[in-house]
Task: inverse folding
């Protein structure tokens, strides 16, 4: 078992992500003794195993107490540890909202993306995989709706290219699809205020005349990405 734990960690370090249906990943998710050994070895190196039931992949991240020591000297640490500019972080939030939130709703309803209606007994079925429920968005629609607020076409294209290289999205023609990291690196409890009041406050400013209760409701509806959930 020790050798298998080492192999799993080495593969995650080499490939960044592995699918949940990978043999060793499945063991980490189902074998308590194997998982305990895995977590202990990772913790000794300041790392942790990242899993999300809505995602088809798993990855590694730094433990919270190690993050500021590793990334705290960088200016972008207040928003992320990928070196993304403020408009890049905001674009990531927009993509997560447009791609992941509808996908999660379909997963919870046990409805595949191609289905026209929900099976009345759907809740008795296992949760569908992301690849069965995730639907991309149109690049042209994204540009039309958010281009002006996200740096126009040149800046938007640059940030989309960066997010694709990092593994957050995949591009197929006009379609922007979920990448292996897009639904793994969200931590709304920790980063919600930091992202909304930081990156998004400049790009999507909220009118000061709106009631405080309405502003709080708006913030609660926006999910912020935990780009600091990856290494």
Result:
């Amino acid at each position: 078992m020790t050798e298998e734990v080492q192999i799993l960690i080495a593969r995650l370090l080499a490939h960044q992500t592995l699918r949940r249906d990978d043999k060793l990943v499945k063991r980490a998710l189902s074998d308590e003794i194997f998982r305990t050994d895995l977590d202990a070895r990772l913790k000794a190196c300041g790392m942790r195993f990242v899993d999300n039931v809505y995602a088809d992949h798993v990855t590694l991240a730094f433990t919270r107490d190690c993050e500021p020591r590793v990334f705290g000297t960088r200016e972008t640490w207040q928003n992320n540890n990928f070196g993304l500019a403020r408009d890049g972080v905001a674009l990531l939030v927009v993509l997560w909202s447009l791609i992941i939130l509808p996908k999660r709703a379909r997963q919870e309803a046990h409805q595949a993306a191609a289905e026209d209606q929900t099976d009345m007994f759907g809740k008795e079925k296992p949760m569908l995989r992301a690849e069965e429920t995730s639907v991309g968005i149109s690049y042209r629609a994204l540009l039309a709706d958010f281009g002006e607020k996200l740096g126009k076409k040149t800046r938007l294209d640059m940030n989309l290219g960066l997010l694709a290289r990092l593994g957050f999205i995949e591009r197929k023609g006009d379609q922007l699809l979920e990448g292996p990291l897009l639904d793994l690196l969200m931590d709304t409890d920790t980063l919600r205020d930091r992202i909304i009041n930081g990156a998004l406050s400049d790009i999507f400013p909220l009118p000061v005349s709106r009631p405080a209760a309405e502003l709080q409701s708006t913030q609660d509806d926006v999910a912020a990405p935990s780009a600091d959930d990856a290494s």
Observations:
- Confidence is low (pLDDT under 50) at residues 206-231.
- The first strand starts at residue 17 and ends at 19.
- The radius of gyration is 19 Å.
